[in-house]
Every structure is written in C-alpha cells, then in structure tokens.
Amino acid sequence: MMINMQGQKSNVPILKVVGMNKTFISTKAVVNVDLEIFRGEIRGLIGENGSGKSTLASIMAGALKPDSGKMYINGNEYSPHSVIDVRRKGVSIIFQEIGTISTLTVAENIFLGKENTVSRLGMVSKKKMVTASRKILEEIGASHINPAASINEVTFEDRKLVEVAMVMYDKPDLLILDEITTALTQKGREQIYKIIENMKKSGKSVLFISHDLPEIQRVCDNTTVLRDGQVVKTLCKEEININNMRKLMVGRDLVGHYYRTDYEPTYEDEVVLKVEDVSFESVLNGVSLELHKGELLGIGGLTECGIHELCKVMFGVIKPDSGSVTVLPQNKVIKSGSDAVKCKIGYIPKNRESEGIMPTASIKDNIVLVSLDKLIKKRFFITRGSENNLAKEQAKSLQIKMFSINQLCIYLSGGNKQKVAVSKWLANDSQILIMDCPTRGIDVGVKAAIYNLMEDLKKAGKSIIMVSEELPELLGMSDRIIILKNGKISGNFSRSADLSESIVIKKMI
Where are the alpha helices (DSSP H) in 358-488? Predict the structure, then answer.
C-alpha cells in the first residue's frame, strides 16, 4: 500500500499485471509475471540481459502483445492496441535505443502523432509547434536544444532528451524508462533523476529499468528482480544493495569485482597502430598516440571531448582534416573502413543498434558479414555450411543466448546484441579492436564476460582501444589511459595501484 501526495492511503495500483506470459518461438521471455506499481512509487526493474525486462516493459506500454495475462490501469482492465493507445491512458515509455525519426525536426519529433494539438484551422502551425516544444524542453532542463533544428544536428545524448520531451508533453501518470541513462552523461542523468523526483512528488509513478545497480539503489523505492522471465523477488528500500541485487539477478553470489587484479601494465614494445597529429573540424585538434601489441589502451573524457569521433577516425569512417592513422608493420595508412577491415581492425561502436549490427538480419548474417572473403571457396562460392559453422563457432564462444543462429538480432537482449557486434570481428580474426563504450547498457554478468574476453585477447597478443565514459572501467581494465579535453590529449597515465579517479578527472575538467 502506498501513500499518495494528499496523505490518503491508496490500495489501488496505478498499474497491475497478472499472470503475464510472452514467448518468442522457443524462448520464454516472460513467465507468469505478477506486478503492481502504486502512485508516488519509483519501482526499479532489474535482471541480466535476456531476463525479460524490456519485453515486460514493452507489453505494459502496448508495444508488444502478450500471449496471456491481464493488465489493469487504476483498477480498470485494459488491452492496449498500440503505444499511442496506452499513452492516452496515461502510460508512456522511452526505450534504450534511438526513438526519433531522422528526417524530422526536433519539434516535429516531439509532436509526432499529436499534431492536432498544435493545429490552426485544420493546418499544423509550425510556429505553435516550435513554441510548445521550446516550453517542454525548458521544463525538462533541456533548453539548450533548438526545437527548430533537424534531429540529425542533435547529439546522441540530446536526442534521448528529445524523447523525454516527447512523452512528458503527454503528462503521463506512469513513465517507463527502459535503460535510457546508459546513453547519457552524468549531467544528462541528473536531469532524468530530477524528472523522476518531480513525478514522485506529484503522485505519479516511474518504472525504472537499469543495469547500473548504484543508480537503482539511489533512485528506487522498491526494486523487482527478474531472472529467466520470472519474478524472483521485489526488494523494499532497505533491502536494495549491490550484493543483494547481484545475487538475485544471477542466482549465485558474485564475489569481488570483474576488473583486472594486477596493477602492472602488460604489453609489448612493438607498435601496431600510430595516430599522428589528427584534427577533425573543431572536435579533434592534433591528437597523436600509439597502440602496442597486447595493450589495452583506455581513452576517456567528458561528453563532446572528441573520444567517439577519434574511434571513427581510427577505423576510417571519418576522414580527418589533417594527420594520419597508420597500421604497423604493414605501414598502411587507413583511409577508409575497408582499409581498416583489410588490416584486421575491428570496430564496436557506441550505438550498436544503428551502427554495430543489422537488427533485422540474422545472427548468422551479422557474424559472417566481414568474413566473406575468408569463406570463399573454389570458383568464388561461399557455402551455406561454411557460414553456419563460423556463426555457430562464434555464438558458442561468446555464449550468445539464442534459439538459433537464424534468429533476427532485433529480438536479442542488449547484452546479446553486443556479443554479436563483437563476434563478427573475432570471426574475421581482427588483431586490433576499437571498442567504444563496450559495456554500455549490459548487465553485470555480460560485463564480466566482456572483461574476461578482453583479458583473453590481450594474452593472445591482440590489441584493444577501449573508449569509455566510466572511470572505474578505465582504471580497472587499462594498461594506459589517455584523457581528451576539448579535442586535445590532456593526460596520459600508466596502470598503477596509486592511480585514482580524482587524479584522472582533474585532466578532464
């Protein structure tokens, strides 16, 4: 039972789920789930990748139809036909991946599907739309975003804030946030926390899905844990701690942390990649660095400091205004993505959904995509058997949770999508891996698997560039750390037990 803002007891949940089930072919995503969310409650929802969190949230928000089960809003049963149908009943959702339309402006995205609210004499008033958009952006703390600008001109983080504006204009009673903070810097996260707190104060509710367990501990009143599609337990505020959540998520105790336990940098003298005096627009300014064989080089910095653009330059998908990227010992200058692939460089981008994988293609097609030359047999044929064998080998090696290599990637969890993004480069025997935020939006179990894989690759003599916005990750995994500030290298640190977050962050700000 929760207390509403007037101090009156309310035993009618704002949203109630009873006996909910959803199966995708042979995968049971949601199994007999019961859940109640009350007014004024911030409810956490956690679980490993593939535990059913996003599927359950999508059912609640009308994006998926359940196989069986019932839902109630304020005590009234409802069977949503679409996300728009649910919004009219006061429930809105923001998904982890980008949910804006590239061909529209910021304002047009915000009012998509509700253009009638800014119409005049039956015609949509662009002026009225921009004015109303500016007001809602100001309300959520995003007044720096120009509502008249094309959404393509907006940063990845600000596009997510535009999505927040889209749903907050509807003034929802229940807001479902599905892993959205993984795309945000600390400043962006604080904006979301403020919105959540305001929802709570006004007697409304939030279902908050996140892999960031300290964040769950900070934000949530109660937290429900899913494992294999089933509710394991709902923790009340005093029970929400890191150890409890980890144990319930994976079904066993997780001792210690997942980072490297040694404090000595371990790599060879041989240089395999050289970046020399690279500049790009106003984002990168004279960046030079070297990557050694068997090295895990961490690169960090604040948002818009140039770290993500540097990844694209090193892989050849962005052409620098000046400077060069050279692979050694071939002494090959990288001028395109195809050059990088031929030189056995792999790139796992930050935005895996639109850049790292083909969501509507199969796991097999994604894995073999960059290895087709390797699979060509006599007379330029590629056999189905060779593709299947390579895909199965990689899927097994990375323990991708699936029912078949022919499963479409769009139906995988975030962590399993990331495994597919990594496996396609391992299938091509890439010797250099550029990993941009490799653990963004994945759970503790998959994080541990990615870190273990990095260590195995290092031991095999492969080299890794890991760009990360998380200082513990940089400190925990890197042989060396390079910090960028305003497009320039501001700090260079070697792995050491004495190296702390406070030392590194001074070079960021």
Answer: 363-368, 372-375, 384-397, 414-427, 444-459, 471-477
- List, in sequence order, every residue forming a beta bridge with 333; answer none if it has no partner: 326
pTM of the model: 0.68
In angstroms, rounded to a whole number, what is the distance separating the alpha carbons of residues 32 and 28? 10
For residue 26, the model assigns a pLDDT of 65
Residue 194 tokens, joined: 């403020």
- 150 DSSP assignment: B
Say which amino acid occupies 188: G
> From CA 352, how far away is CA 236, in angstroms rounded?
34
The single residue listed with the structure tokens 């890197």 is 478
Distance between CA atoms of residues 54 and 45, nearest Å:
9
Helix 444-459 and helix 414-427, axial crossing angle in degrees, nearest 10: 10
Tokens 């090295």 locate to: 295
Write b or e for each residue in 61-92: b if 16 or more Cβ atoms lie within 10 A of its Cβ, otherwise e.
bbbbebeebebbbbeeebebeebeebbebbbb
d(CA 464, CA 309): 17
Per-residue confidence (pLDDT) for residue 2, from 0 to 100: 45
Tokens of 113: 């599907």
Asked if residue 238 lies in contact with residue 221, where contact means CB atoms within 8 angstroms, the answer is: no
Six token digits for residue 337: 């993505």
Within 10 Å of residue 234's Cβ, how many Cβ atoms? Answer: 16
Give dist(CA 368, CA 237) in Å, integer. 46
Q: Render the burial of 195-224: b for 16+ CB within 10 Å, e for the rest.
A: bbeebbeebbbbbbbbbbbebbbebbbbbb
SS3 359: coil
Q: What is the crossing angle of helices 444-459 and 242-250, to 10°?
A: 80
Instruction: Count Cβ atoms within 10 A of the Cβ of residue 192 and give its class: 0-12 exposed, 13-18 middle, 19 or more buried.
Output: buried
Residue 14 DSSP symbol? S
Q: Answer whether residue 8 shows pLDDT above 50.
A: no
Q: How far apart are CA 177 and CA 44, in angstroms?
A: 10
Q: Where are the beta strands (DSSP E) in 243-377?
A: 271-280, 284-292, 296-300, 322-327, 332-333, 345-348
Question: Which residue matches tokens 């400091």?
Answer: 305
Instruction: Give the range among 118-122, 383-387, 452-456 with minimum mean pLDDT.
Output: 118-122
Strand pairing class (123-124; 119-120): antiparallel
